[in-house]
Write a structure and sequence with these properties.
heterodimer, A: mainly alpha, MetI-like fold, B: mainly alpha
Chain lengths: ~525, ~300
């Protein structure tokens, strides 16, 4: 057992330091004002307010509510099983909660240690800034009483919880094969602690905002905003639940439920459409534009990319001569280094009249386009630009469309390969049975291939959507100053906030918001997948 | 489906039979679609090769093919862009990080695949959940961590190999990939190894790793591709060309070369060539590695 942990240790130290610790670090950093230096003054949710305005208070409130809901439902499920199936779930509760408390205290230790450590460089300013001085300050900081106390409380609780858990585990292993309830209780405990911390943070921040507003003599309507927006969200949630339950009822009650659901939906949507823009009005325009560009990018690439790949994979799967060759060629754009292929597309989509695409347009007698340097939205361009359609309706800029084409070009081959693997996993007998039943090619595709391929389709769409939110490299290479930032997706905005503007805290806050978006997408996707995906 | 029916009979006889004719037509349409797809995939590459062999007037004049291939473009691009430096940097970065990744990922993957310990599922879930994290969230914290580590360790981290390699020496992807392969190794092998008095470590090195050479190969390939694609992180942690990898080198060259399209394209070819060649030689491993894990490198 100890050997297993020592095998895991090196990998987990590296992943912990560069993969998990950054989460805690970014959360801490995002509360600092920091401009052009590593440690700024504490600013609470200030960075978030600058990014998304008052919406952040509503978000934190709802995240806390979600965490509490998660914790309560997990515990409730364990208790229910405990009653019904006579499992001994409760003996896991105390060690798990002790471990959760230890983990929370360990996080507190990190938040005690971090600021002290980050202060070291500024302490050295003016003195002779040698490595020895730096190191001795590090050692000094480590041995600060408050750091040590925080550390040892956490370690003792954590060790106590884990040892107790192992002890319970040992007694369980002997009598039966009953499930282990450690993780549910542990995650419930962690959720409750995080929810409490979030609520405390939101509460103090809202009060501080009110105090500040009072001092400046301006009115503030935070609470009313929180209530209205939350009501809007709740109505939408209610509409969804009603709609879902309507499907299971008899037709009359079902109709009534649907009707109520539709009313709730419209009311909720109306509240949100009317109120949301007011709530986020002072947010960062670059950030909102970045998110809008990302959404455009997702909508413009993912369906096309998956559709093309599905067609290619279905055709390739028909025992075609040269299948391997086709597969190798399709996959090439994905494998070739991004910066190289992006450099090529920079020239293909160049605004010179003699560039490849513009020569093609010339062949058809059309005027050359600016492509990657064109900030105007495509719908705006198609309609002739006489009417101002506003930022959303005028669609993605032509520059962004060019980048989307590059994105599709790169990923179609990758999706095709995954689809081929998915197709290969479908048992052949099913097609034979379908053949006997007289199902034609299309019917077989529709009723055998698609349902059995749904896990693959689900995985690829989730992967593509998340990948777009993370996308950086090719967009960074393809973006042109002339496109006026219309091609900057979320990751690019974060990178610029960090590298160009050196706003460390702000960039961290944006990154945390991005993570939240990705988590919500994953959760919603899992929810949908558990209903719609057919695992054969 | 259709190909079996088409095999028999002469071409003329096939044309006479309406079912066979339809099958042949279907087959033809399928090939047309597939060939169009293949053309779309490789035309940009062919275009790159063509432009990289042009002279300046041809490259900016919108011609499709060079009159006489200018092989000297490659030499010029190689020297102007300091590609020999960036090339070596990327190779060194790849070797160090892949070497580390092999050791650390193999150890962890072995523990997950062949050993039993409390908290296994939890730790594995925790590991996989890191795949969801956007790279953007690690930029600021890791930059601070790395510059801070550089102050206390004997070697500097910024503008040096540690910052470019050590964070990539263990990844959820690598552990997951190796675990998938390690799991397929039958338990009986371990039992007999134990009888021979071999410990876990020796069993891993002598038996498990040689048996999973395909997985190791895939990991190495992904390591190369990953190192060749790295851009955001190297921009953040390098301020001098000393340790700058090739993608960053190409990007700065693209900006320097400006209107010299033929040199830009020669640079792009130089950058892409090693990976593309590597890919053509190992494409089976490569594609299967991706298809079995369903993840990217």
């Amino acid at each position: 057992m100890l050997l297993a942990y020592s095998f895991l240790a090196p990998a987990f130290i590296i992943i912990g330091l560069f993969g998990l610790f950054p989460l805690a670090f970014a959360a801490y950093e995002s509360t600092l004002r920091g401009l052009n230096k590593i440690v700024g003054s504490y600013d609470g949710l200030g960075n978030y307010v600058r990014a998304v305005d008052n919406l952040i208070y509503i978000l934190t409130f709802w995240i806390a509510a979600g965490l509490i809901y998660f914790a309560v439902s997990t515990i409730a499920r364990a208790v229910q099983e405990h009653r019904q199936e006579q499992t001994n779930a409760m003996r896991w509760a105390l060690p798990a909660i002790l471990t959760a408390a230890g983990t929370a205290l360990f996080a507190r230790f990190v938040y005690v240690l971090l600021p002290e450590m980050l202060l070291i460089p500024s302490k050295l300013r003016g003195q002779n800034n040698t490595q020895e001085a730096f190191r001795s300050l590090v050692v000094e900081t480590w041995w600060l009483p408050k750091v040590q106390i925080a550390l040892w409380i956490a370690v003792v609780l954590l060790a106590g919880g884990v040892v107790w858990g192992l002890f319970v585990n040992r007694t369980v292993a002997r009598d039966s094969r009953e499930p282990i309830y450690f993780v549910p209780f542990f995650s419930a405990g962690i959720s409750l602690v995080s929810a409490a911390a979030l609520i405390w943070l939101t509460w103090t921040e809202i009060n501080a905002a009110y105090a500040e507003a009072l001092e400046e003599g301006v009115g503030l309507e935070l609470w009313s905003q929180i209530v209205t927006i939350s009501a809007g969200f709740l109505l939408l949630l209610l509409a969804w639940r009603l709609w879902e339950s309507a499907g299971q009822r008899s037709s009359n009650t079902g109709m009534a439920l649907r009707l109520v659901g539709a009313v709730a939906l419209m009311a909720g949507a109306w509240v949100l459409i009317a109120e949301l823009p007011r709530v986020v009005s002072a947010g960062d325009e670059d950030w909102w534009n970045g998110l809008m560009a990302t959404v455009f990018y997702v909508l413009g690439t993912v369906p096309i990319q998956l559709g093309l790949a599905l067609i290619l994979a279905a055709l390739l799967f028909q025992k075609i001569r040269g299948q391997t060759l086709f597969r190798v060629l399709y996959f090439l754009p994905y494998v070739a280094p991004f910066v190289g292929t992006a450099a090529v597309f920079r020239i293909i989509f160049s605004n010179r009249p003699t560039a490849p695409l513009n020569s093609l347009l010339d062949l058809f007698g059309a005027e050359p386009l600016l492509w990657l340097s064109e900030p105007a939205g495509i719908i705006q361009m198609i309609t002739g630009g006489r009417i101002d359609l506003g930022p959303i309706l005028s669609g993605p800029s032509l520059a962004l469309v060019a980048i989307m084409i590059y994105g599709i070009w790169t990923y179609v081959g990758f999706d095709t390969v995954i689809f081929l693997a998915g197709l290969g996993a479908i048992p052949n007998e099913l097609y034979e049975v379908a053949d006997i039943d007289g199902a034609g090619g299309w019917a077989q595709f529709r009723h055998v291939t698609l349902p059995l391929l749904s896990p693959t389709i689900y995985f690829l769409s989730l992967y593509a959507v998340i990948g777009t939110f993370k996308a950086f490299n090719h967009i960074f290479v393809l973006r042109q100053a002339a496109a006026l930032g219309t091609t900057d997706t979320a990751s690019i905005v974060i990178f610029q906030a960090f590298k160009r503007d050196t706003r460390y805290g702000y960039a961290s806050a944006l990154a945390i918001l991005l993570l939240l978006i990705i988590m919500v997408i994953t959760l919603v996707n899992n929810r949908i997948a558990s209903r719609r995906v057919f695992y054969g | 489906m259709a190909s079996g029916a088409v095999g028999a009979g002469t071409f003329r006889a096939r044309l006479a039979d309406p079912a066979a004719r339809r099958a042949a037509l279907n087959q033809g349409i399928i090939y047309v679609v597939l060939v169009v797809g293949a053309a779309a995939s490789i035309l940009p590459f062919l275009y790159t090769v063509s432009v990289s062999l042009m002279n300046l007037t041809e490259a900016t004049g919108g011609r499709a093919l060079p009159a006489t291939p200018q092989w000297s473009n490659y030499v010029e691009a190689w020297q102007d862009a300091q590609f020999s430096l960036y090339f070596m940097n990327s190779v060194k970065i790849t070797l160090i990080s892949v070497g580390g990744a092999l050791v650390f990922c193999a150890l962890a993957a072995y523990a997950f695949a062949q050993m039993e310990f409390p908290g296994k599922t939890f730790l594995f879930t925790l590991l996989l959940s890191t795949l969801m994290l956007p790279e953007a969230i690690t930029w600021v914290p890791n930059f601070i961590t790395v510059s801070w580590l550089g102050r206390i360790s004997p070697v500097p981290w910024l503008n040096n190999w540690p910052s470019l390699t050590i964070p990539f020496m263990a990844s959820a992807f690598g552990i997951f990939l190796l675990r998938q392969f390690f799991q397929q190794i039958p338990r009986e092998l371990w039992d007999s190894a134990q009888i021979d008095g071999s410990g876990h470590l020796r069993y891993l090195v002598r038996v498990v790793l040689p048996l999973s050479s395909a997985a190791v190969m895939t990991l190495v390939l992904f390591g190369f591709v990953g190192a060749w694609n790295a851009l955001a992180w190297p921009i953040l942690v390098t301020t001098t060309p000393d340790w700058r990898p090739i993608s960053y080198g190409l990007l700065s060259f693209l900006d320097e070369a400006g209107a010299l399209l033929h040199l830009q394209m020669a640079g792009a070819i130089i950058t892409m060539l090693p990976i593309v060649v590597l890919y053509f030689f190992t494409q089976r491993h490569f594609i299967e590695g991706i298809a079995t894990t369903g993840l990217k490198g």
